[in-house]
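Researcher: I need the complex structure. Ligand is tricarbonodiimidic diamide. Inputs:
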Amino acid sequence: MIQLVAEPAPIGIDLKRTALVIIDMQRDFLEPGGFGETLGNDVSLLKAAVEPCRQVLAAARKAGILVIHTREGHSPDMNDAPPAKVARGAPSKRIGDVGPMGRILIQGEPGHDIIPELYPIAGEPVIDKPGKGAFYATNLGLILANRGIENLLVCGVTTEVCVNTTVREGNDRGFRCIVLSDCCASYFPEFHQMGLAMIKAQGGIFGWVAGSKQLLSAMGRELAA
Ligand code: TIU
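Model: Output:
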């Protein structure tokens, strides 16, 4: 058990029943020439989350916590891509079009892959998801149930889109979701702040928010104990 300083209240977590879920830290969102940039965003805004995420990932691996990575994207035939998603907005390139990192948001393309700093290692499940939420049309729930997981430490991008959707899905499924604030980022700094505020408001209506430093120091105390 670790005692984590969090908002709206401290929380005790059994690390054996906890998974670290890293949402969509893909080149398509973090690097120029990918999906995020085609939507008109400044992708450099997401960089801030990489180093805190890397530190939490290293600590989780050392502590033997289950680590799960997710990737948003679609199969090359795009049978799993809703036409309403593909046609949305006025991006410079649409999902499936060829960009500098291969076809935008398509599995197997360089842009779809996870950034090198956070690359999965053998044994870490990688969940490919067609939607924003990591539970929708994936086997994430089954993997977590099989491991007896009750708590999710959530990192990734973007705070108000795939992180928030996944936390809301997880909360309704009975998981305690703890979002690591500095391990998440948005193309809109104000949405990052509000995305976190929405989770922890009303007594933690969707979950808890904590900083990576709070988690790392709580884990350090546990390892030293
Ligand atoms: N992973 C994720 O958040 N997908 C998005 O499309 N995010 C945006 O902010 N666009």
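Model: Summary of the prediction. Strands lie at 2-4, 11-13, 18-23, 66-72, 98-99, 102-103, 126-129, 151-157, 176-185, 208-210.
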